[in-house]
Amino acid sequence: MSDYYFKRFEDRVPPPPLEHSRPVEIAWQVLALCSLIAGAIYIHWRWTASLNPDALWFAIPLALAETCAYLGLVLFTANLWKISDYPRQPAPATINECMREEKGADRPISVDVFIATYNEDEEIVRLSIRDAMAITYPHPIDIKVHVLDDGSRPLMETVARAEGANYITREGNAGFKAGNLRNAMERTSADFLVICDADTRPFPTILENTLGYFRDTDVAIVQTPQWFYDLPEGERLRDVWGRKVGAIGRGLGAATEAVFGEIRIGEDPFANDPALFYDVIQRRRNGANAAFCCGAASVHRREAVMFVALRAYADAIEGASREKRTAIDKLLRRRDTRDPLARWQAAQEQELTPYKFHVSEDIYSTIVLHRDSDRNWKTVLHPQVESRMLSPQDLLSWTIQRFKYAGGSLDIFFHDNPVLKPGLSLGQRVMYLATFWSYFAALWNVVFLIAPMIYLFTAIPPISAYTGDFFGHALPFLVLNELAFMVGTWGLSGFKGKVTYLSSFPISLGALWAVARGKKISFPVTPKLRQDGNFIRLVWPQVVVMIVTIAAITWAAGALAMGVAGYSLGGLIVNGLWGLNNILAMSVMVRAAFWKPPEEREQAIEGVVPA
Amino acid sequence: MKFSEKLRRGRAHLLIVAVMIVTAIVVVNLEDEALTSEVGHHPDHAELRGQ
User: Fold this and answer.
1) Residue among A47, A518, A475, A526 nearest A296 (CA)
2) A572 φ, ψ to 5°?
3) What is the DSSP letter of A190?
4) Does a structural domain hold residue A609?
5) Do the bridges between strand A166-168 and strand A264-267 make them parallel or antiparallel, or are there none, so unpaired?
6) What's the pLDDT tens digit per position in B9-48?
7) DSSP secondary structure string, A65-107?
8) Which own/partner pairs from A157-160 qualify as long-range (CB within 8 Å, at least 24 positions apart)?
9) CB A286 within 8 A of CB A80
10) What are phi and psi of A17, to 5 degrees?
């Protein structure tokens, strides 16, 4: 193995799935319900008894933002309500155990492992091929590993062949990853597909642990959690302070850790750990059959993928033939609407596309499956990690990835919104709405960032009520909400995810703006290795928020000291703490822009690499 | 996973709760004192709601 930074993490093992404890789940549900009731009382009070009539320009947007955030909370609570793991079954021995109707002579199952690549380092792909070749199964099975190279690189072909994998490429790269997968599907024929990115390294057990779900002949896709095994582990607070200040620092750090528990500086600086997403959000969608495919590390039934393709093909012909029909009708001045000519002409122009050519082709395909009420396709989130992957190691890669997620989801929302279309169950609608709603949150998060600044600069309060009344309504809601989510995500740390959600507002706003203008979200490949450079340009909005908030706090403190009318110590404390919370959230992203791996930092200090 | 480790992972929620409660107590007391010194008696919710 080349001397990659992740070499030293090879021995890491993934964490087990969160234990399902019924008492903890009941505690979460009780707290969540109390929190929602307290929230409803608070929101009602905000609209009916607390708006400042002298500053409605400020009061109404803030109340509106709080209401939107509350609706997001209701959706998120519904998402997290209950763990309902899909029952695991033993690995099937033959294909007929996974089919609705037995077809002819029984035979071993066949599986194609697709490793999609474009421009990633060939040696990284080699590791993925080797791990894919090492997949085991308790019964006879036909596994083929295919490298799908959209970069048509001779070196990639050499590596693939040397490792015993099949090499597939094509002219151009239309449709990017979705087009790449379609091309591979046309050239392969196995019963099941394992989708891997260039850096996805499946564990030997991936098929043994997932193919059992397909005994249920309605199961179309099994998604396994993506696990980044290269997350920086950071340095203990006592060691950081000890290094900087000496023995006193070390002692202070140790004392702080004795009170609050272990504190690690620089741990997972980009909040990449997807455990909250897979082990909590996606896993708890199993009950509503609403877990969606995330691409890498998922197993697909070929029949289901082809079903999606045929459904999309039929819909496309239907849509296109309607247009053709109108044109032909106009031309021939006739009224017969069942025109085979129009359908034939439309069919000639459509292509059968197993995975939709879309930046979020994985979630899109899942939606098509879920919407089909005739076949009742199911998707499963298997809670156990079955592969390892590399995480974005710099803010540019991270931003590209997040922008693709946000832009892709919002594009679906605006152009093919499943929430309002027929086919989905109520539970599925709620889950998809929760996903889309989360990307709109940047709109109200901006209000939450600006609101304390406005008060601190102008002394104009958005709320006109006795302070005791305000806290009497707000505090029970806020406290119950914090406690509910602590219990609801018991065993995971959600703090970094929460602050990143707030501080990544420019990405979501950018995606929203791009989609609203009808701009197509591009498909750039997320870099798999660390990109060099200064990424401060990516966080200038966060820096502005920090500077203006600090200025606002300073201004208000000065005004209060000078006895300027309208300012109060209480107002300064509340809005100052709110502003500090915002600064803390922004600082996580700003720090990430400057983050360097420890070894690179040490080299820079020693002058080996320019800082 | 040990209970203490789970608690460690959830500590941010507890810290936020503590900060919010302390802030609320301090601010309400400050405002009450200010109002008491202005009107001469402890503020009553119903009395102040219309302001």
Assistant:
1) A526
2) -65, -45
3) -
4) no
5) unpaired
6) 999 999 999 999 999 999 999 988 888 888 777 766 545 5
7) HHHHHHHHHHHHHHHHS---PPPP-PPPSBGGGG-SS--SS--
8) A159/A122, A159/A123, A159/A125, A159/A126, A159/A129, A160/A125, A160/A129
9) no
10) -60, 155
Q: What is the residue range of A242's domain?
A: 233-267
* Mean pLDDT (whole number) for A529-533: 67
Alpha-carbon span A383 to A223, nearest angstrom? 9
Give the span between the Cα atoms of A117 and A155, in whole angstroms.
13
pLDDT tens column, A350-396:
666 666 667 678 888 899 899 887 888 999 999 999 999 999 888 88
Give the three-class secondary structure for A110. Answer: strand
Q: Is residue A40 part of a domain?
A: no
Are B13 and A486 an interchain contact pair (Cβ–Cβ within 8 Å)? yes
3-state secondary structure at position A113: strand
CA–CA separation, A104 vs A579, rounded Å? 69
Which residues does chain B have within 8 Å of residue A493's beta carbon, measured at their own beta carbons? 9-10, 12
Q: Say how many domains are in chain A.
A: 1
Say whether A468 and B14 touch across the interface (CB within 8 A): no
- Domain presence at residue A108: no
Cβ–Cβ below 8 Å for B49 and A475: no
Q: Is residue A310 part of a domain?
A: no
Instruction: Please check whether residue B27 touches A, CB under 8 A.
Output: yes
Which of B1, B11, B27 minimises the CB distance to A574? B27
What is the three-class DSSP state of A267?
strand
* Of the partner residues A49, A465, A490, the one whose CB lies closest to the CB of residue B10: A490
